[in-house]
Amino acid sequence: MECVVQGIIETQHVEALEILLQGLCGVHKQSLRIHELCLKSVPNLGLVASEIRLLCDLEQPEPTWTVRHVGGPMRGAGAEQISVLVRPMLESKVNKNALRLFNGLGYKLDHEQLRVGFAFHFQRGAQITVTISSINKMLKLHATDEALPVTPGIQLVEVTAPASSENYTEVVASVSSFCEYLAPLLHLSKPGVSTGVVPTAAAAAASLMSDGGGTK
Amino acid sequence: MEGVVVGQDQQQQQQQQQQQAGRVMVEGLNPAVQQQLNLESVKTRAVSLFKAISRILEEFDAIARTNALPKWQDILGQFSMVNLELYNIVEDIKKVSKAFVVHPKNVNAENAAILPVMLSSKLLPEMEVEDNVKREQLLHSMQNLSVASQIEKLKVRIDMIGAACESAEKVIADTRKAYFGTRQGPTLLPTIDKAQAAKIQEQENLLRTAVNLGEGLRIPGDQRHITSGLPGHLVDVLAVADGPQSFADSSGTYLKNTPPFSSSNVNSQGALLQVSGALRAAASPSGTTSFDTTTASPLQHVNSPRSSANMMNTPSPQQQTHQQQQQQQQQQQQQQQLQQLQQRQKMMQLPQHQQQLLAQQQLRQASIPGLGQLHGQPQMQFSQPLGAQQFQGRQLASGALHHGMGQSQLNQGNQLNRHLNQFSSPMNTALFNSAQSTPTSQMISNMSAMMPSQTLLPRMQIGMSGGTRNLAAANLSDQMFNMGGNNPGMMSIQQQQQQQHGTFANMSQNTQNLQQGMMPLQNTPQQTHPSFQQQRPQGQQ
């Protein structure tokens, strides 16, 4: 299971957000360059399609592959009250033959994207990962070198934390309290819920930048 | 400082005078002695005050030299002490100075030299010089005028200064208000103009749908050819000989729903198909064999991970021994199954989640006669509903909530889930399912005949009393993460509900309790028909 929230931030404020996160998390950013292939099964495999994501981390010296299955969000009145999306998520490292394997199983490529940005991994009540990335699409199949941003002026911010069914409430609390620290710069919400841009973002970014990297 | 020096001079003069006064005025001796003592203390105090003030000045010197920030708190404290001490000294001197009013009655040679000094109101020379200088500055421009006009001008000047001070204070107060106002109020937040906000919104939607759903990232089928060179990480993964990955652009064939919906859809439809297949087989009036096939087909899935666990492994010997019983009940079951088939056909027209709700209810109903009559062999009958209900669990929960059911029902389900998981016996789940459905006298009597686990039953009753039927399936499998996930969060509410509905005793002793617990269920609109066989599952809950 994972708890996840997403938000958007204008590209001009990304550096300020990076400064803020570095101050909050105490760790340095890690560059991110992930080629994500979303595979969907053909209709005859099962009665309904299932979806598998293959992530290839291009930042490592040797590309590492991960397979990921994301389930649907937890539903219920309790789920509606919390501001974080909780959903099942299974992830595993695989070797590079995974793509071929899934193709052989009958999974066809539905869409792919390239995420370029950076991430912060830290522990703050829960193991939280904040990624700021620009989502790029490829006009030609698998052409990661010629990827263009889907939205040049806006980048995606995602805060995720793994959880289990026993402790997900604490993880949710940790994630939401952390997100409050980012409130001056961006709003985070469940994936699919649109937030818009925060009006104080410009001022907050300016103050962050002018401090010369000082804490907010 | 000058005041203190003057004080000291005065003291010395007073001392001298006292000595002289002691000689002049006899009555001054005794008070003079007392005052001498006071004078000495006043002198020491004045000296210590002088030292304190000089210390403060030294501190300021040091701070000014080192450009350090003064600790205002400390300095203010020292100032206040000095102030207090000075005040006390002045008070004492005032008290004492009354004794030094000089009214010489007699001027003689001894007094003559001192008296003029004592009696003069002239200021000390330094003070006089200062006074003159200040007066000079003030009246510089007005020396030529008359005194009255000088007074006028001075008054005007004083008024102007007063007005300037007042306006300065006003400005300070206004800025203070404004400063505090902006800090607290949201009125000064910058706003984004609407056109820009709309643009950003549009971009945001693009981005979010791209990330979460892949919208806008799909390459049409005809363009899906690996034309240019593959990036490094894909070169050895995708041999070019594999050819283009053709993706039939019939995206309509894929359900673009969220995965759990689709997966539960798979399973539920599969279950439905299984069941309907079984039912069709049962509906034929051909007799005993049909019943075997109905039970056989679900049993084929007994060992699959979808159905609940291991207990299903051994029904086959029981199946053979109880065939006679089965034959007796077949007609009844066929009727029910016919009904279910008809209902299922109707269901197909309903929206997906409602279908599953109905299916679950129907399947539960199918299990109930089996409950009563197949006493020793509930497992076979329950494989059907269990199979279907497991898959529907997840969707049911969402469907149920879709219809606005509260947390309470989930809680009961969660509690039951945990308990059920502890025991993980199909008998219990079947009992629970039957308990969840509408109560009838038949079922109650059947229930009393079934005693799988006495400790479990009270808990199931707790679940029954408050809730509706829709929770049964959700509890059957650990894999239904919804329920599992909801468990910790809803514990408190579960406990509250336990208190509300009381605890039920062992069912063998309290079938009456069961009936009482059933009352709320009976009152719900779903359960208007007393005869269980004729019950139609009502629509949305």
TrEMBL record, chain A:
Recorded GO CC terms: core mediator complex; mediator complex
One BP annotation, GO: positive regulation of transcription initiation by RNA polymerase II
Key words of the record: Nucleus, Transcription, Transcription regulation
Transmembrane helix keyword on record: no
Compartment annotation: Nucleus
InterPro entries: Mediator_Med18
Similarity remark: Belongs to the Mediator complex subunit 18 family.
Name of the featured protein: Mediator of RNA polymerase II transcription subunit 18
Protein source organism: Capsicum annuum (Capsicum pepper)
